Fold:
Amino acid sequence: MSTPWAHRFAQRTKAVKSSTIRELLKLTQRPEVISFAGGLPAPEVFPVERFEDACHRVLGAKGGMALQYSASEGYTPLREYLAQRMARYGIIAGVDNVLITSGSQQALDLIGKLLINPGDRILVEAPTYLGALQAFNVYGAEYVSVPIDHDGLRTDQLDQALRSGPKFMYILPNFQNPGGVTLCEPRRHELVLLADKYGIPIIEDDPYGQLRYEGEHLPPLLVLDRENLRRDDGKLGNVLYLSTFSKTLAPGIRLGWIVAPPDVISKLVQLKQGADLHSSTFDQMVAYEVVHEGFLDEHVKKIRAVYRERRDVMLAALAEYFPPEVTWTHPEGGLFLWVALPEGMDMQHLFQAALRENVAFVPGDCFYPGGDEGSRHMRLNFSHSNPQQIREGIRRLGLAVARELAAHQTGVLVGVER
Amino acid sequence: MSTPWAHRFAQRTKAVKSSTIRELLKLTQRPEVISFAGGLPAPEVFPVERFEDACHRVLGAKGGMALQYSASEGYTPLREYLAQRMARYGIIAGVDNVLITSGSQQALDLIGKLLINPGDRILVEAPTYLGALQAFNVYGAEYVSVPIDHDGLRTDQLDQALRSGPKFMYILPNFQNPGGVTLCEPRRHELVLLADKYGIPIIEDDPYGQLRYEGEHLPPLLVLDRENLRRDDGKLGNVLYLSTFSKTLAPGIRLGWIVAPPDVISKLVQLKQGADLHSSTFDQMVAYEVVHEGFLDEHVKKIRAVYRERRDVMLAALAEYFPPEVTWTHPEGGLFLWVALPEGMDMQHLFQAALRENVAFVPGDCFYPGGDEGSRHMRLNFSHSNPQQIREGIRRLGLAVARELAAHQTGVLVGVER
Structure:
């Protein structure tokens, strides 16, 4: 008579694809593993004492407000602060253009919810951010992908891809995750012009933009769109811009934001209300208290110095320990670099071999909507491990790579799983 | 050449229904308005100092962890605490049965995302919680509704409603929002037996269960389902249970939870990962620090005393100031009572008339999936205003009601909008 829920449930729920990277990351949790797999900031740069002061001030002066329900749009002083701060990058936004989200991940979810009908094609870079694919997949997205090279999206292939009529483009112009590459300025112009020509909106995801370790800051697509197309009526144009405090302040408080025209914001606000009512009032007020007196600039400088060193240590270690057949990107900022191994390498096998050496990475196939195109790549994170761990981890990984490569080249099988 | 995003956007986004209550609530923000419209806890009962201590302890001892990314499932000690705490209500759950969500609202969104395909019918009480309708509407839900009376859901009408094959039932058994009524024990048994007979899962939403001001605690549907149907294999059965810290601790930190079988939890975790990665690590650790040493029991006692008094003041004021044709529910707990006016009253008109008297409520039609069935009801919140404000607000509202009623009965038009 009684069908257990577990069984009933299986008949009733939609298919939810289990996340490969989630399963992989579990394997990398052992303390002896040096993991380049996650995308975590270094906890030693979190401004813990400043957070403590801010909590004290917020709860002391406005405790009743900080613990109460608040507006779905976000805490107004924080939205004003963000609008002002973005002006330095040429982004002209008022408070009505800013929606606070529960991390950038929620921005992606709300955008998917608003724009994607089952079967809609989304144009993405190949490879692209896994979390965006996860967010969009739920709404039945399909994909058109355009490859990247060392200057970012291959805009020479864009015109043809746009003819297939994607609903929107999802682009990470700065220090792309996972590729580590930056879209060069001429291609930024091409991209916004083509987007306009075909009438395809761009979602510009910029979590890492402030973490630049060399070279000049490049203008956001949002700004180029307005400048190129003379959208100087004060309205935002064809680009929706996302960013976050996760990489500059702290990811644990889950605060990101969307910049969009007010009529887009008001639809997103409705969806946010249905999704979680609002982001934590307390975290928003504390974050505002932490950043609002110019602290973020000085803090970002400190983070840049720490991560620049770690990137340089990783690049030097790769040059020292990796076989010459292997190549990698030289990221000008961000958290990741992208390593290309020779054709035919089995990355799942290499992942297992590396784990036996107590070192971990993410196999590249996770970052393609199709799944398997990137099978000879690995993503390495350089922000979380300290310089000593980075050197040692790359040494171990270099050994595993060299061994796999030798086996691959000589046709001799190594390991137990193959 | 350049189509502005605003225009393009209109062609590309899905329809997002604007929320009537959202617009109404904006009108009630003037400081001179006594608002019974929201569903806000009283900020004066928030344990602000204890939060301050907890922030100090969490950041002092584990700052790096509190500000870092964390597991989508939630902070393990908090999940363990909740599993243990729920045992006192007969809910036998382990840590694997508990998912932390960004408020109960996110639980509703994730459930909608997992279960609802466009056109699926959901069985709801009429009236029901507006936020659930908002969460489910996005996924294309349609509704079958069963009325409530003073003993909650009319289970005598349930059998027929279940024959229409709803995907699941959404039920608020304790001090229902907006009705203020509680599902009596015999009907709880009937409900779980009928759910089992038709194989229709129940979503049991219990945000207010601990805020009981009189009478005995009644067993959760989750427990009755297991007991009645001898699901004593240690597995949870046909009921998925939701609750939250919003009404017992603080809503601003956005922490709720779902209790479900592990295989349901694991699918919801995947969806949560795509939705916001995880709820605020910091808020979870602070909440755990606030509650874990038995504080919640003593605090809930205090809240109960404050809200019981406010409920009693409102009931007394209604008896004193409202015309005899008007009736209302007598809630044994929770935050709301539900007022029924005579047939034919225009509630939108009454809402405007009340606002001119500087008092606000929510018109009942917001709480029906169809929209207009409840047009002669109003929802009144008694938790947020203090006793003096409650008496004065009900006096003003009574005046507006009496005037509208007189006009309605004599056919004389009052006001300017009619």
